[in-house]
Amino acid sequence: MLEGLQEKLSKVFKSISGKGRLTEKNISDAVRQVKLSLLEADVNYKVVKNFIDSVKEKALGEEVLKSFTPEQHFIKIIRDELVKIMGEHVEDLKLSKKPAPIMLVGLQGSGKTTTAAKLANFLKKSGKKPILVAADVYRPAAIDQLEKLGKQIGVEVFTGDRKDPEKIVIGALERAKDEFDVMIVDTAGRLHIDDEMMEELVRVKELLQPDEILLVVDAMMGQDAVNAAKVFDEKLDLTGFIVTKLDGDARGGVILSISYILGKPVKFIGVGEKLDALEKFYPDRMASRILGMGDVLSLIEKMEKELDKEKMEKTAKKFLKAEFTLEDFLEQIRQIKKMGIDKIVEMLPAQLKTPDMDLATSEKELKKIEAIINSMTPEERRKPWIVDYSRKKRIAKGSGTTIQDINKLLKSYDEMKKMMKRFKKGRIPFMKF
């Protein structure tokens, strides 16, 4: 996500690294490069102009703060301005009624139906009782798709007569009252905006009186998405946006433009195809990701949500006692795979990523290690030192790997054990305070 912009901005910051102070010339050079980077990322030109003017004004003539180098000072200014254009505050859903209607609108292909299910899943995990409403009667199989998704997350899907969106909405309001907290309505989209679609959405809005009208925006669309958003907002008075497909090759223009241009907040972002790949949007965290600072807070939240706390605590205790076995190692691999190694790496600060970090290779290595440990007997997992040549041959054959792969794993395990012993004895330098 946004790797291209991140890489370009990183080069800009390196260009002023080591300067004794910020001068008008090095600021002007850096600002010009930032401007080009943003335009190449398909950020709206008005947003870029205002952003650059503000950065230049703050950077010029200011003394570098004592706690910052010129590079750090300039990065801080850029980060603060990025947060400002993306919306300075986290915007929660404003749900005042019960059931609270949420109307999802957008063009065809933006991922609206899948997003409806993701949002229902998110709200369900937050303790709400949502119902999905299939009001897109035009796209072939849209209703079937929502029913299938609803079944996967254990959320009821109301389909009504499957023909008339207005009748479906009226029926859904009756079905939802007294039993559900939230009603998420998947409305019809088109390949292009037309009057007929808009009029139908206006009528559905009047029937629903929704607490939220969220436009689902495809990050891959660039400035076309911002232009479409203006039309939707004029007709429906949007309350916010959900930006999808930020896990793809999106250049970043939408996430950096839409809130500033429309004056409405981005509330969620879609970061994958799985039904749990919907995140609340934090402008400050997104700014940190763009600048290569990572997003450790989101990583911690993801770990708390997805990892088995009891197993993690048990493993941590074993680690501290230097009793960590290959069975524990296998459990850690399964936890990492559960989270998704790509998601973990994406949230790490740039300095923790190596230039040769290959996600595909990392994923492959994890599978290889898992296969090796799975091919061992319980005794071999608990006592790896008993694995001799004949056992290695058997394990290699059973796991589809080589003896060299097994040697590599056992060596890594031995090094980890040595490190744990030093850790236990307090000989790890960075642990001294």
Choose one word for the global shape.
Answer: flat
Put simply, the count of helices is 19
- CATH topology (level 3) name of the largest domain: Rossmann fold
Radius of gyration: 26 Å
CATH superfamily placement of the largest domain: P-loop containing nucleotide triphosphate hydrolases
Strand content: 5-15%
Terminal CA distance reads 37 Å
Number of strands: 8
- The chain-level structural class is alpha/beta
Task: Describe the structure in brief.
The protein has 433 residues and is an alpha/beta fold. The protein contains 19 helices and eight strands.
Describe the structure in your own words.
It is a single chain. The chain has 433 residues and is of the alpha/beta class. It has three domains: 3-86, Four Helix Bundle (Hemerythrin (Met), subunit A) (Up-down Bundle); 100-293, Rossmann fold (3-Layer(aba) Sandwich), CATH 3.40.50; 302-431, Orthogonal Bundle (434 Repressor (Amino-terminal Domain)), CATH 1.10.260.30. The chain has 19 helices and eight strands. The chain has helices at residues 3-16, 24-40, 45-59, 70-86, 112-125, 142-153, 165-176, 195-208, 223-236, 253-262, 283-290, 296-306, 309-320, 326-339, 341-347, 359-374, 378-382, 389-399, 403-424; strands at residues 100-105, 130-135, 157-158, 182-187, 212-218, 240-244, 266-270, 278-280. An eight-stranded mixed sheet has the order 3-2-4-1-5-6-7-8, sandwiched between helices. α10 (253-262) links the parallel β6 (240-244) and β7. α4 packs across α11 (283-290). The longest helix is centred in the last third of the chain and has 22 residues, at 403-424. The two termini are 37 Å apart.
